[in-house]
Amino acid sequence: MPGAGCDRPAGALTPLPARGEKGLARVFQSRHGLAMNYRHAFHAGNFADVFKHLILTRILAYLMRKEAPLRFLDTHAGIGSYSLAGKEAQRSGEWRDGVARVLQAAKPKPIAALLEPYLKVLGPLTPTGGGGRYPGSPVIAQELLRAQDRLSLCELHAEDRLALAATIGKDRRVTIVEQDGYAALRAWLPPPERRGLALIDPAFEDPKEPQRLEQALAMALTKWPSGCYALWRPIKERRADAHFLNAIAALGAPGILQLELDIGVVALTQHSPSPLSRTGLLVVNPPFTLVEEARTLLPWLAGVLASDGRGSWRADWLTPPK
Ligand SMILES: C[S@@+](CC[C@H](N)C(=O)[O-])C[C@H]1O[C@@H](n2cnc3c(N)ncnc32)[C@H](O)[C@@H]1O
């Protein structure tokens, strides 16, 4: 049962469902009749999660410099917290080459300062997985945000939505909906606070996901042009990625920040079976501090997370700022 595009040696573990691949997980039918087999539990805390969550904490830290309330919108929220002792995380082991390396690495002073909110939300987690859980984006935001802030979370997978609600617990700041994330985004915008961040972090199971992302951003920019948006993507095929980037640039929004991390060739071993080695975030209307912060953090992160020292990174403008 090989995952699409996953050329595995005989005798290796069955490939795990990775973003943009059909995986082996039990196929779940959403209320909307969509097949959903992506399970983030296999990938929680991997290099792509660390990259995305670190940037997320930097954006939230900036937005919280002002007392005024903010809104965090998470269109594809997941279950909020992931057991690293669970069978999915144990089987993939991806977190060992992600968050475990970050916890273990030496942190020069400027790096430690920028990592502070991220390390705070990791709490008691140790490089060997002691402490047990890796936080997803909803829990990261829940931990960092203040009493005056609000969180709107969307998760289409019914069981995952229940798990998310259980993880979040009673928190009057948080609303959770079970629907398509792009439809939720349309309904949420503009948020009453008129400031905040929308994280768009789909599973990339659908080959049309890049087009859906592009259409969602086009819609969002008409409803809330000044909003900050962070769009996650896997980078697998250069031409397809260039096509996607051109389409996003053509939307005409100025100052879209293009952040990328490449950890080099990933060996298809039992320990790290995901073939994904490059990931990116596009940040629309980023905090003015983010580009310099990324230029400090990403070289360090690339060094820490790269397999055989061949990591690279990028932090520049897809469209020039005004
Ligand atoms: C990559 S995971 C989210 C990870 C999470 N944002 C984090 O950083 O911790 C993507 C999630 O989107 C959910 N999902 C898939 N299609 C969806 C859709 N159309 N609308 C909302 N959620 C969806 C999946 O069930 C999965 O839990």
Description:
By secondary structure, the protein is an alpha/beta fold. It has a single domain, classed as Rossmann fold (3-Layer(aba) Sandwich), CATH 3.40.50.150. The chain is 35% helix and 18% strand. The chain has ten helices and twelve strands. The protein has helices at residues 47-63, 87-92, 99-104, 109-122, 137-144, 158-168, 181-188, 209-223, 238-249, 290-305; strands at residues 28-29, 35-36, 71-74, 81-83, 133-135, 150-154, 174-177, 196-200, 228-234, 256-262, 278-284, 312-319. The strands form three sheets. It has an eight-stranded mixed β-sheet, sandwiched between helices. Helix 8 links the parallel strand 8 (196-200) and strand 9 (228-234). The radius of gyration is 18 Å and the shape is globular. Residues 1-18 and 20-25 have low confidence and may be disordered. The structure holds S-adenosylmethionine.
Give the structure's gist in a few sentences:
With 322 residues, the protein is of the alpha/beta class. It has a single domain, classed as Vaccinia Virus protein VP39 (Rossmann fold), CATH 3.40.50.150. The chain has helices at 47-63, 87-92, 99-104, 109-122, 137-144, 158-168, 181-188, 209-223, 238-249, 290-305; strands at 28-29, 35-36, 71-74, 81-83, 133-135, 150-154, 174-177, 196-200, 228-234, 256-262, 278-284, 312-319.
Q: What's the helix and strand layout?
A:
Blueprint: E1 28-29, E2 35-36, H1 47-63, E3 71-74, E4 81-83, H2 87-92, H3 99-104, H4 109-122, E5 133-135, H5 137-144, E6 150-154, H6 158-168, E7 174-177, H7 181-188, E8 196-200, H8 209-223, E9 228-234, H9 238-249, E10 256-262, E11 278-284, H10 290-305, E12 312-319
Parallel strand pairs: 3-6, 3-8, 6-7, 8-9
Antiparallel strand pairs: 1-2, 4-5, 9-11, 10-11, 10-12
Helix pairs in contact: 1-4, 1-5, 1-10, 4-5, 4-10
The structure holds S-adenosylmethionine (SAM).
